[in-house]
Amino acid sequence: MSMNPPTAILAEDEKALRDELRLLLRELWPELVVLGEAGTGIEALQLLEKHAPDLMFLDIQMPGMTGLEVALQARGRCHIVFVTAYDAYAVTAFETGALDYVLKPLEPERLRLAVDRARQRLGSTPPNLEALLRELIRNAEPRNYLRWINASVGHLMQLITVDEVVYFQADTKYTRVVTATCEALIRKSLNELRTELDPSVFWQIHRSTIVNANAIAGVSRDMLGRIKLQLKRRDEKLPVSESHAHIFRQM
């Protein structure tokens, strides 16, 4: 067994939960070195490729790629602990012992058990769990994502399907709903919308903007390397913040 300290990546899209997990791990496993933290499945996969950690703590529901899909890519390369609020069927599968899990909200004693198990496994080759992971992905219950929005257009209320939306943008107490032909306002925060929209289609590109990936025409960079998105049916360009630029690095 290597004398180097054990290493891990934390992947959880809610920053508060990610912070809590890091602090609890610092108490329960002080020698564990956290090499990186991810807020999306795509970012978690990039950190896996960059750092080759011993262990990954993965949230199952993340934008871009689910934790199950990331684990499928990581199979045989590192040990996995899921941090999840997932349904009972998944917990039953984890109880086989091949995968470990911690349920949200985090409980220190349950995390301690997962840490103890992970410590024992670090001296062994990570198992290839492709069959189990594919079964979990296949059996995952589809989420009922937001399909339409009742929004204010002037003095009128208009029904807008989410497929029509080019992007959402925070606007003081409201959120702007921008389609190819009109703009509307809704009394729902961007954070609320983020949890209700299909993350494989609607990507957060800025703390104030969520874009429909199907509405993106192209990606450009200015002289300082800052990314902007060109849209198919709108003239304006949308800036991408540095914290979300990883989504477009391969483009």
**Secondary structure: number of strands:** 15
Helix content: 25-40%
Low-confidence parts:
none
- Strand arrangement across the biggest beta sheet: 2-1-3-4-5
Descriptive account of the structure:
- The protein has 251 residues and is an alpha/beta fold.
- The chain folds into two domains: 7-139, Rossmann fold (3-Layer(aba) Sandwich), CATH 3.40.50; 148-248, LytTr DNA-binding domain (OB fold (Dihydrolipoamide Acetyltransferase, E2P)).
- The chain has helices spanning 15-28, 41-51, 67-74, 88-94, 108-121, 130-139, 190-196, and strands at 7-11, 33-38, 55-59, 79-84, 100-103, 148-153, 156-161, 165-171, 174-179, 183-186, 202-206, 209-212, 216-221, 227-231, 237-240.
- The strands form four sheets. A five-stranded parallel sheet has the order 2-1-3-4-5, sandwiched between helices. A five-stranded antiparallel sheet has the order 10-9-8-12-11, with no helix packed on it. Strands 13-14-15 form a three-stranded antiparallel sheet, with no helix packed on it.
- Helix 2 (41-51) runs parallel beside helix 3 (67-74) and helix 3 packs antiparallel against helix 6.
- It is elongated and about 65 Å long.
- It starts with 6 loop residues before the first strand and ends in an 11-residue tail after the last strand.
Topology:
Blueprint: E1 7-11, H1 15-28, E2 33-38, H2 41-51, E3 55-59, H3 67-74, E4 79-84, H4 88-94, E5 100-103, H5 108-121, H6 130-139, E6 148-153, E7 156-161, E8 165-171, E9 174-179, E10 183-186, H7 190-196, E11 202-206, E12 209-212, E13 216-221, E14 227-231, E15 237-240
Helix pairs in contact: 2-3, 3-6
